[in-house]
Amino acid sequence: MPKIVDKEKMRAQIQAAAQSCFIQKGYHATRMSDIAKAAGLAKGTLYLYFDSKDELILSLVQVFFDRIRQDISVLPRPQTAEAFVEILRQAVTMQQREMTALIFEVLGPGFTDPRGSQIIDGFFDWLAGHWAEQFADLARMGQIRSGSDPRALARAVIAMLDGLFLHLTLFDPESDIATARREAALTLIATGLRGEEGAATGMRAAG
Amino acid sequence: MPKIVDKEKMRAQIQAAAQSCFIQKGYHATRMSDIAKAAGLAKGTLYLYFDSKDELILSLVQVFFDRIRQDISVLPRPQTAEAFVEILRQAVTMQQREMTALIFEVLGPGFTDPRGSQIIDGFFDWLAGHWAEQFADLARMGQIRSGSDPRALARAVIAMLDGLFLHLTLFDPESDIATARREAALTLIATGLRGEEGAATGMRAAG
DNA sequence: TCCATTTTTGACCAATTGGTCAGTTTCTGG
DNA sequence: CCAGAAACTGACCAATTGGTCAAAAATGGA
């Protein structure tokens, strides 16, 4: 007898509206009324689907990382160094760039809910493990040098890639400069992965 | 006859208090009254030295990047690839880590004052030029490969280093893991810089 | 000591906003 | 077509906060 709505669909609809607003104006500058208007709902309705503004952004962050994880995990296991670099290229070219800046805005020192950092930590932990395995495989196959601990190497590559992604996001996203930078970075990483061991750092002069 | 105060000194004092508050609680969560209390002043007094909260944070961002620029520009010109990597190590180990997250929080989509991005763009432009020169020199001296455009290479290294810095900042700042990651990344970069040309990307297989 | 001038103060204000809830609308099944 | 339950609404509220300004305090010189 009662009215029935698809709760999940409504949540998704609100999330879409919220994401659009947040990306456009930033988290703090976005008002719940903005989101309501964008979603074609009254403000009160939002609270039937999300307990608070924090819950809303948190759910967006979750969805964001879940999707990236999904995208990455379906890629085929690389059998060569080149194939892995191609994965890196895809990762850094991935869509949803606008979310990145937003996430930084939200999860700064002012955001006290620990679930925020949990999501991010969890994602990077997973990715480090995922790629560490692949590094180990590639090293075993002689595709890359095998000097470093795969996990440390994975974390290093992730961090650098994240920076690359960030800079591509924040500065001139689609320009030639961006492309040149991206390829220069990938070349650097690829060469570094393949290069002979112990080649770097002050160690070399010492040893 | 009148009372006289050292305006610059007061500004610096307020900036110090503000920075401490912002770092601790985040920009948005910090109240002007918090800053006043931390500085040992009344709220109204703050407005005698800074026009607004935005001006205050903006001045902090400016000081932050000015200082980094200063720190980097006084380093001696590297004559070897190893020396350059050592510079990178210093750059990424630099203090004031806490400011980084703050800057991301502040200069997100919600911050409309263009001076914010100007400061950052300006800094990275300067750094790219600075290092591009050094790359060109090192390439001329045969210390690093000379295939890439020095400026693109510089921007790539900067982006990757920024990511590294960021990850070191946000996750386990002082742990062994962080050290391992940092050294893995530096080794990778060093090897990549020195490595033979055209070694990477799908090109290799094709060429 | 006293004045002129600068500096400081903090109560106050206007504007804002996340969140609530009593009342209204919409839908379903009979 | 109706009743009842679910869903929706938006005026309202309590709390907050950046910023102001008239009054008070502090200072240095005469």
Q: Gist?
A:
Mean pLDDT of chain A is 89; it is low at 197-207. Chain A has 207 residues and is mainly α.
In CATH terms, what is the architecture of the largest domain in chain A? Answer: Orthogonal Bundle
- Averaging pLDDT over every residue of chain A, what do you get? 89
| Main beta-sheet strand count, sense and barrel state of chain A | none
- Give the number of domains of chain A: 2
Q: What is the overall number of helices of chain A?
A: 10
Order of helices and strands of chain A: HHHHHHHHHH
What is the straight-line distance between the termini of chain A?
81 Å
What oligomeric arrangement do these chains adopt?
Answer: homodimer
- Give the helix/strand class of chain A: mainly alpha
Number of strands of chain A: 0
Per CATH, what is the topology of the largest domain in chain A?
A: Tetracycline Repressor, domain 2
